[in-house]
């Protein structure tokens, strides 16, 4: 399978071509020993916020810069 290079939180990584942002979030959580919980992370790609509901449709592209962070709630 063909791989592409992306940047995740400042670190270059190779992922399978066609990987969704949702699949990447799940992989990151598994690698860090966390339960798979899409609500535990917020995501931005190339400095644009990507909602949880849009992650499954977002296909990562070569050189995308993905940033994950803890969601902040407030009022």
Give me the count of strands. Answer: 5
**CATH homologous superfamily heading:** Beta-grasp domain
Indicate the overall shape: globular
CATH topology: Ubiquitin-like (UB roll)
What share of residues are in beta strands? 25-35%
Q: Could you estimate the helical fraction of the residues in percent?
A: 10-25%
Mean of all residue-level pLDDT scores:
92
Number of domains: 1
Measured on Cα atoms, how large is the radius of gyration?
12 Å
CATH architecture heading: Roll
Low-confidence stretches: none
Assembly level: single chain
Tally of DSSP helical segments: 2
Largest sheet: 5 strands, mixed
Q: Strand order of the main beta sheet, please? A: 2-1-5-3-4
- C-alpha termini separation: 46 Å
Order of helices and strands: EEHEEHE
Q: Give the class-level CATH name.
A: Alpha Beta
Class by helix and strand content?
alpha+beta
């Amino acid at each position: 399978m063909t791989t592409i290079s992306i940047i995740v939180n400042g670190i270059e990584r190779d992922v399978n071509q066609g990987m969704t942002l949702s699949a990447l979030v799940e992989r990151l959580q598994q690698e860090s020993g966390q339960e798979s919980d899409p609500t535990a992370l917020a995501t931005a790609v190339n400095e644009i916020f990507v909602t949880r509901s849009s992650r499954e449709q977002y296909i990562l592209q070569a050189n995308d810069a993905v940033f994950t962070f803890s969601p902040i709630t407030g009022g």
